[in-house]
C-alpha cells in the first residue's frame, strides 16, 4: 500500500480562503439568479413575520393586560384615569402600542376580543412564516441541486481532459473521493444548510436593529454576551475548518487505499499480503477517524458554548429588566414595562436561536467549504496537453511519421529520450526493442500526444502533431495495449466503442478479422452478452482479440502495439498474432516487444537503451552486425527456443516468444 505524505503536504501547504471558495461557488449560482431572488424575498418575508411576533407579544401585555389590570385595580376608572396614569410617567409603558390604543374603560369582553385578535395575528404570522420557509427551502434545493449537477458535470469533463501525467501522480481513489464524497458535503449544505445560515444571519441583524430602536440602552445590556459569542464562533470555526480540511484529505486517502486494494486483490492474495494490507488500511482509516473526531470536537463544543452564553443573556434581560422595573426612579425605569421585558426576552431568544442554528450547521458548512476547496483544486489542475489556439483538423493521413531530434522528459532536467530520430513511411512496420525503462513506451506515447516532446518535433505527413487538434489526431491512430480495458457493456458496444455509429455488420466484420468471432458466438448471448467489470469472465487472450477488433473497426492509418501479447501464453499469442498480421497490412505500425516473426519481417528494428536509439536496421542486418540486438536475440533464443513447440507453418526459431522487455 502506498503512502501519501508528499501529496498531503502539498495540499495542506497551499493557502486557502473560504471567501474565495464561496465566491467561486457563486459563479455557478448566478445562472439561477431568478430562483435566488425569490429565495431572498421569501427570506425577508419570513424573517419579517418572525420579527413581529415578540413585539406583538409584548403589546398583548402592555396594551391589553396592563390597562385592563389597572382599570380593575382602580375600580373601573374612566379615560381620565388613563390620562392621569400617563401624566404620572407611564407614557413610555404604552409607547410601543402601535397595533392598538390602550383603554382603561374597556370591558372584559372588549379586552378579550382585542387580545384574541392579536393572538390570532401571532398564530397567522407563525403559519405564514412556515409556508414562506417551506417555499424558500424548496427553491433553494432546486437551484442548489442544479448547481451541484453543473459542478459535477464540469469536474467529470475536466477529469477526461487532464493529461495522463496527472493520473500517474494521483490515485484514482482520491480523484473519485473528490467527485463523490466532497460533492456529497456540498449537497448537504446547498439546500437547507445555506438557507438556514442566510436567514439566521438576517434575523440576527434585524433583531439587533429592532431592539436598539425600541430601547437602545436596554438593547446594549441585552447584547452584552454578543462579543463573547463572536470570538467563540470565530475561534472554534477556524479550528474546525482546518480539521475538516484534513478530514476531507484523509477520506481521500482511505478511498485511494481501498480502490488500490480491490484492484490488486489477486496480487495481494498471490503474495500473501492480506494481513499487511489490512493493517495499512486500519492505519489510514484510524487517521481518518482521528481527523473527523477532532473536527467534530470543535464544532460540537461551539454549540454548547453558544447555548450557555444565550442563557446568560436571557438571565441578564430578565434580571436587569426586573430591577429597572422595580426601580422606576432609575435612568431607565420609566422606559421599562412588563411587555417590553417580555418583548426583549423574545428577541433575545430570536437572536440566540439563529446563532445556535448557525453553530449546528457550522460543522457541515466547514466540511462543505473544505470539500469545495478540494473540488476546485481538481478543477484548477491544468491540462498539460492542450490544443494550441491555431490548431487545425488533421486531414486524412497516409501515415508518413517522422521523429526529428526528439527529446522528452517527465521531470524537468531528467530527459527520458535523447535526440531520437525515426522515419516511418506509409505502410512500414517499425519494431522497438530494448530493456525495461529504455524509453520504448515513451516513444510511442509522444505520437498521439499523451505526452509532449521537450525539444524537436514529430510530424505526420508533414503536420506537427502539436499543431493539429488532438481528437483529429487520435481518431487516426489505433492502440492495442498489454492490459486491455473492457467496459461493463455488451460485446457489440465494446467493439464499437471507437465508432459508436458503426453498424452491426461492420462490428461483426471487425470481429472476424481479429479472429474473435468464433468465441463471441459461443458466449451465452453472442454479441449482446454483457461483460463484467474490465471484461471479467473472459480470458486475457479473448480480451486482447476484442481490443484488436475494436481497433480494426476504426480502420486507423497508424497502429501502435505496446506489448500487446506479452501477458498471454504462447498458444494464445499465436492466435492473436494471426489477427495482428491482418491488422498490420497497409498501415504504418509501431510494435514493442512483439513476436519474433513480426520483428523478423519489420521494415525497421530500433534498439533503444538509455533513452537513445543505439542500433537500427532490419532483423537480418542487425544480426549480422553482432551488436546488442544480436546478443539479445541469441540469449533469448538459447533460453526459449528449445522450450517452444512449433506449430504447423512455423520454424523452431519463429516459435519462441521474443519478449524484448
Word description of this protein:
- With 661 residues, this protein is α/β, with parallel strands linked by helices.
- Helices cover 62% and strands 9% of the residues.
- The chain has 24 helices and ten strands.
- It has helices spanning 5-13, 18-29, 33-73, 79-90, 108-161, 164-169, 172-179, 181-214, 216-222, 226-263, 265-270, 274-326, 338-379, 440-446, 470-474, 491-495, 504-513, 517-521, 540-554, 570-584, 596-600, 619-625, 628-640, 652-655, and strands at 401-411, 414-424, 429-433, 455-460, 463-464, 477-481, 558-562, 588-592, 604-609, 612-617.
- Strand 9 and strand 10 (612-617) form a beta hairpin.
- The radius of gyration is 39 Å and the shape is elongated.
- Residues 1-15, 71-82, 85-93, 329-334 and 641-661 have low confidence and may be disordered.
Annotation field: number of helices:
24
* Rg (C-alpha, Å): 39 Å
Question: What class would the helix/strand composition place it in?
Answer: alpha/beta
Taking all residues together, what is the mean pLDDT? 76
Number of strands: 10
Major beta-sheet overview: 6 strands, mixed
Anisotropy-based shape = elongated
Low-pLDDT segments = 1-15, 71-82, 85-93, 329-334, 641-661
Which features would summarize this protein structure in a list?
disordered C terminus; 24 helices; four-stranded antiparallel beta sheet; disordered N terminus; six-stranded mixed beta sheet; 661 residues; alpha/beta; single chain; 10 strands
Amino acid at each position: 500500500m502506498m503512502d501519501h505524505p508528499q501529496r498531503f503536504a502539498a495540499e495542506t501547504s497551499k493557502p486557502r480562503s473560504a471567501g474565495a471558495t464561496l465566491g467561486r461557488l457563486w459563479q455557478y449560482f448566478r445562472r439561477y439568479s431568478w430562483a435566488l431572488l425569490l429565495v431572498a424575498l421569501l427570506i425577508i418575508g419570513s424573517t419579517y413575520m418572525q420579527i413581529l411576533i415578540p413585539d406583538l407579544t409584548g403589546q398583548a401585555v402592555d396594551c391589553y393586560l396592563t390597562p385592563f389590570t389597572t382599570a380593575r385595580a382602580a375600580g373601573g376608572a374612566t379615560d381620565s384615569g388613563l390620562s392621569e396614569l400617563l401624566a404620572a410617567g407611564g407614557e413610555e409603558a404604552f409607547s410601543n402600542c402601535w397595533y392598538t390604543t390602550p383603554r382603561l374603560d374597556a370591558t372584559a369582553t372588549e379586552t378579550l376580543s382585542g387580545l384574541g385578535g392579536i393572538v390570532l395575528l401571532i398564530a397567522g404570522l407563525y403559519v405564514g412564516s412556515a409556508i414562506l420557509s417551506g417555499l424558500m427551502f424548496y427553491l433553494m434545493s432546486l437551484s442548489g441541486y442544479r448547481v451541484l449537477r453543473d459542478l459535477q458535470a464540469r469536474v467529470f469533463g475536466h477529469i477526461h481532459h487532464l493529461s495522463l501525467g496527472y493520473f500517474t501522480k494521483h490515485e484514482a481513489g482520491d480523484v473519485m473521493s473528490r467527485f463523490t464524497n466532497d460533492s456529497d458535503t456540498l449537497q448537504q449544505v446547498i439546500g437547507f444548510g445555506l438557507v438556514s445560515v442566510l436567514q439566521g444571519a438576517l434575523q440576527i441583524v434585524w433583531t439587533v436593529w429592532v431592539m436598539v430602536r425600541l430601547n437602545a440602552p436596554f438593547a446594549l445590556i441585552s447584547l452584552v454576551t454578543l462579543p463573547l459569542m463572536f470570538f467563540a464562533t470565530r475561534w472554534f470555526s477556524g479550528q474546525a475548518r482546518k480539521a475538516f480540511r484534513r478530514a476531507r484529505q484523509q477520506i481521500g486517502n482511505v478511498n485511494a487505499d481501498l480502490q488500490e486494494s480491490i484492484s490488486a486483490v489477486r496480487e495481494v492474495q498471490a503474495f500473501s499480503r492480506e494481513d499487511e494490507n489490512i493493517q495499512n488500511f486500519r492505519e489510514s482509516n484510524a487517521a481518518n477517524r482521528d481527523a473527523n473526531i477532532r473536527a467534530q470536537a470543535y464544532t460540537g463544543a461551539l454549540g454548547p458554548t453558544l447555548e450557555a452564553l444565550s442563557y446568560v443573556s436571557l438571565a441578564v434581560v430578565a434580571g436587569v429588566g426586573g430591577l429597572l422595573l422595580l426601580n422606576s426612579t432609575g435612568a431607565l425605569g420609566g422606559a421599562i414595562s412588563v411587555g417590553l421585558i417580555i418583548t426583549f426576552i423574545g428577541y433575545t431568544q430570536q437572536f440566540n436561536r439563529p446563532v445556535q442554528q448557525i453553530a449546528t450547521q457550522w460543522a457541515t458548512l466547514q466540511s462543505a467549504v473544505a470539500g469545495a476547496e478540494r473540488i476546485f483544486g481538481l478543477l484548477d489542475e491544468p491540462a498539460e496537453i492542450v490544443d494550441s489556439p491555431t490548431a487545425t483538423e488533421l486531414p486524412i493521413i497516409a501515415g508518413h511519421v517522422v521523429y526529428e531530434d526528439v527529446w522528452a522528459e517527465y521531470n524537468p532536467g531528467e530527459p527520458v529520450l535523447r535526440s531520437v530520430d525515426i522515419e516511418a513511411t506509409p505502410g512500414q512496420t517499425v519494431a522497438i526493442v530494448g530493456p525495461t525503462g529504455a524509453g520504448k513506451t515513451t516513444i510511442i506515447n509522444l505520437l498521439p500526444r499523451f505526452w509532449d516532446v521537450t525539444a524537436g518535433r514529430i510530424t505526420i505527413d508533414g503536420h506537427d502533431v502539436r499543431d493539429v487538434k488532438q481528437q483529429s489526431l487520435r481518431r487516426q491512430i489505433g492502440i492495442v495495449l498489454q492490459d486491455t480495458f473492457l467496459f461493463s457493456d455488451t460485446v457489440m458496444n465494446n467493439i464499437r466503442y471507437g465508432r459508436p455509429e458503426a453498424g452491426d455488420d461492420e462490428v461483426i466484420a471487425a470481429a472476424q478479422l481479429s479472429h474473435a468471432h468464433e468465441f463471441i458466438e459461443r458466449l451465452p448471448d453472442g454479441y449482446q452478452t454483457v461483460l463484467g467489470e474490465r471484461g471479467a469472465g473472459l480470458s486475457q487472450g479473448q480480451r486482447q482479440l476484442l481490443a484488436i477488433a475494436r481497433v480494426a473497426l476504426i480502420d486507423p492509418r497508424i497502429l501502435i502495439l505496446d506489448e500487446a501479447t506479452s501477458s498471454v501464453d504462447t498458444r494464445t499469442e499465436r492466435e492473436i498474432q494471426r489477427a495482428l498480421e491482418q491488422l498490420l497490412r497497409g498501415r504504418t505500425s509501431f510494435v514493442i516487444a512483439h513476436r519474433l516473426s513480426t520483428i523478423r519481417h519489420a521494415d525497421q528494428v530500433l534498439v533503444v537503451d538509455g533513452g537513445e536509439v543505439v542500433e537500427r536496421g532490419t532483423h537480418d542486418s542487425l544480426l549480422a552486425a553482432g551488436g546488442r540486438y544480436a546478443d539479445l536475440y541469441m540469449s533469448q533464443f538459447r533460453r526459449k527456443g528449445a522450450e517452444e513447440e512449433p506449430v504447423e507453418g512455423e520454424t523452431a526459431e519463429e516459435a519462441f516468444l521474443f519478449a524484448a522487455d
